[in-house]
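Write out the 3D structure for:
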Amino acid sequence: MNREVNKYVNKLQKNDPTYLDMNTYVPKESENSVTNPLGEYFPPRRMDQTLYRINKYLNLGWEEK
């Protein structure tokens, strides 16, 4: 599955060279809530970073193997 995702991301990046340059997430403001800045979001770009986040939030104990 990871290879397919990498192929897809590479395809998107070929079509739009700035695809991976997006590094902030700004939520849409809703009418009834006060929005707080969430800070900068940096998506994981390497497998070890992705696994770290998966294990941090889901506690699955996945390894790169």
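The two ends are 14 Å apart (CA to CA).
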